[in-house]
């Protein structure tokens, strides 16, 4: 018998989490291994329970569902994600897709539809059919995730990995994984080069940097 898909539910409304758990509990091929109400809690519980799939809301008290996907995939690269949200705007869909979400499901759908989406993603399918937003120009900063942009900014402020982890409420190992990834994206080899890169960008007073997502 195939083991059930292990699901981590992330939503800051307990009544929503309870409803989702109730739906998933009606089937045998899915099981809820943990719940979380914040980005930090989600990443911590993912590290402990190692889910196969994230079912995550976009709006959370300390960040977004995109931050959850980024943070968990830094530790569990193979984890799959389904965004379950009240918001259906194209920008939110694009952000979720860019972070690696495989499906974008509105909370207004019936329980059976949600289960169908979760099962499809667990089986390896992708239900996001819209064309993703493409980076503008050749700026590598455009290729960083919102979490990586925040980490770059904090490194530029002189914070250590441990201090960045404390600021974001994640494990230091998670920050290190992000740093490794963003160095490759920026074409840099050492963390100290990030500081110089940030300093130069700020010196040029690039408005795109000032308005980067946090």
TrEMBL record:
Residues of the Response regulatory domain: 6-122
N-terminal signal peptide: none
Modified residues (4-aspartylphosphate): 57
SUPFAM superfamilies according to UniProt: C-terminal effector domain of the bipartite response regulators, CheY-like
Cited InterPro entries: CheY-like_superfamily, NreC/VraR/RcsB-like_REC, Sig_transdc_resp-reg_C-effctor, Sig_transdc_resp-reg_receiver, Tscrpt_reg_LuxR_C, WalR-like
Stored CDD domains: LuxR_C_like, REC_NarL-like
Domain HTH luxR-type span(s) in chain numbering: 137-202
Keywords per UniProt: DNA-binding, Phosphoprotein, Transcription, Transcription regulation
Protein name in UniProt: Response regulator transcription factor
Organism: Ruania alkalisoli
């Amino acid at each position: 018998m195939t083991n059930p898909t292990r699901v981590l539910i992330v939503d800051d409304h307990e009544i929503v989490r309870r409803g989702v758990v109730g739906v998933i509990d009606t089937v045998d091929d899915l099981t809820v291994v943990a719940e979380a109400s914040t980005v930090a809690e989600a990443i911590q519980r993912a590290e402990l329970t190692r889910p196969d799939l994230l079912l995550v809301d976009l709006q959370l008290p300390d960040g977004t569902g995109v931050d959850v996907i980024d943070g968990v995939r830094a530790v569990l690269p193979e984890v799959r994600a389904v965004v379950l949200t009240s918001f259906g705007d194209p920008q939110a869909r694009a952000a979720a897709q860019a972070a690696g979400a495989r499906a974008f499901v509105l909370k207004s759908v019936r329980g059976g539809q949600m289960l169908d989406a979760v099962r499809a993603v667990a089986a390896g399918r992708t239900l996001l059919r819209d064309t993703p937003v493409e980076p503008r120009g050749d700026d590598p900063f455009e290729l960083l995730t919102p979490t990586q942009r925040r980490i770059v900014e904090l490194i530029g402020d002189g914070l250590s990995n441990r201090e960045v982890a404390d600021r974001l409420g994640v494990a230091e190992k998670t920050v290190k994984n992000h740093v490794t990834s963003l160095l490759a994206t920026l074409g840099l080899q050492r963390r100290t080069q990030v500081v110089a890169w940030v300093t130069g960008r700020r010196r040029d007073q690039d408005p795109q940097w000032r308005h980067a997502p946090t």
